[in-house]
Each structure stands twice: as C-alpha cells, then as structure tokens.
C-alpha cells in the first residue's frame, strides 16, 4: 500500500502544487463567506 501511494504521488507531483493552491483558495472562500454576515 505504501508503494502504491508513493508511486501515485510521484505521478501527480507536477499538479500537486496547483491542487494544493486550489484547496487553500476554496478554504479561504468558505471562511470569508461564513464571516460575511458579521460585516453587515
């Protein structure tokens, strides 16, 4: 199982940074969206 996970990470290493940036952006949008009612 560890070998399969390692090979999956090696295959997707080119897009891993972009995927992480997208996940962080979605998290930020969620937090900002949940705090918008406090501003008004």
Structure description:
The chain is an all-alpha fold. It has one domain (2-39). 92% of the residues lie in helices and 0% in strands. It is built from 2 helices and no strands. The protein has helices spanning 2-11, 13-39. The longest helix is centred in the middle third of the chain and has 27 residues, at 13-39. The chain is elongated and about 50 Å long. The mean pLDDT is 91.
Summarize the structure.
The protein has one domain. The protein has two helices and no strands.
Q: Helices and strands, in N-to-C order?
A: HH
State mean pLDDT (0 to 100 scale).
91
| Major sheet summary line | none
Q: How many domains?
A: 1
Rounded to an integer, what's the Rg over CA atoms?
16 Å
Distance from first to last alpha carbon: 50 Å
Q: Which helices and strands, and how do they pair?
A:
Elements: H1 2-11, H2 13-39
Throw out a few tags for this protein.
mainly alpha, elongated, 40 residues, 2 helices, 92% helix
């Amino acid at each position: 199982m560890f070998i399969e996970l390692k090979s999956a990470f090696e295959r997707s290493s080119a897009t891993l940074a972009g995927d992480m940036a997208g996940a962080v952006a979605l998290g930020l949008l969620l937090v900002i969206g949940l705090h918008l009612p406090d501003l008004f």
